[in-house]
Amino acid sequence: MKLNLSVDEVLATTRAVRKRLDFEKPVEPEIIKECLEAAIQSPTGSNAQSWQWLVVTDSEQKTALADLYKQGWDLYAQMEGNVQTAYKGDDEERIAQQNRVQGSAAYLAENFEKVPVMMIPILPGRYEGLPSVASAAMLGSILPGAWSFMLAARERGLGTAWTTIHLMFEEQAAEVLGIDYQSYTQCALITCGYSKGTDFKPAKRPPLETVLHWDRWDGEAP
User: Fold this and answer.
1) Domain count, the chain
2) Which of 142, 154, 214, 215 could be disulfide-bonded to 14 (CB atoms 3.0-4.6 Å)?
C-alpha cells in the first residue's frame, strides 16, 4: 500500500530509519522489486546502466554480514572523534541531534542481523586510486539509483538507511555473497524494512543561506 505522499513530502521526509525498523515484519519480494524498478530509471554516467543490485534476505547471509558490520562498527566508534563529517560546533541543538543519530546508529549495529532486507548496490570494476573525475562518475552512476530506491521505499511504508561500515571488510563480504571482488565494487549496504509508523518529519537543517554560494565561492560559513 502506498502512502500517496507528494514528491516534496517524500523528498523532505525520507529519513535514515534505524530504531523504528520493524524487525518482525517481513518485506514482500514484490515490494522490493517495485522499489528497484524505480531505481533502474535513474540516470547513470555515460548512460552506462552498469549497476547491479544484490538483495539479501537469507538469515545466514545476513548474520555473516552483521558480523562484519559489527567489527567495522567497533573500529568506527574508536575513531569517531576524527570523522570529518561529524558536527564539531557548539550549537546545543545540533549536538543533541548528533547524539541521537549516534545512538540510533549504535542500535542498528547491535541488531544488524535482524534487518529484514539488506540491499547492496554494485558497480563493475575497482575504483581505488583513480582520479577524482573517475570517482565522481562512479558515484554519479550509483547514488541516484540508490536514492530512488530509498524514496520509493518511503512511499511504500518502508524505512531505509544508507550504510558503508561493512565496506571496511568488503573483500570478506564479497566472499560471503559470492561476488568477484576484483571485478565488482560494493558501493553501500542499504538496510530496509517496514517502519513503525510512517509519520516522519523534515529534519532540522542549517538555513540555506549558510550553505548557498552563487556564481563564486565566498568562503565556508562558520
Assistant:
1) 1
2) 154
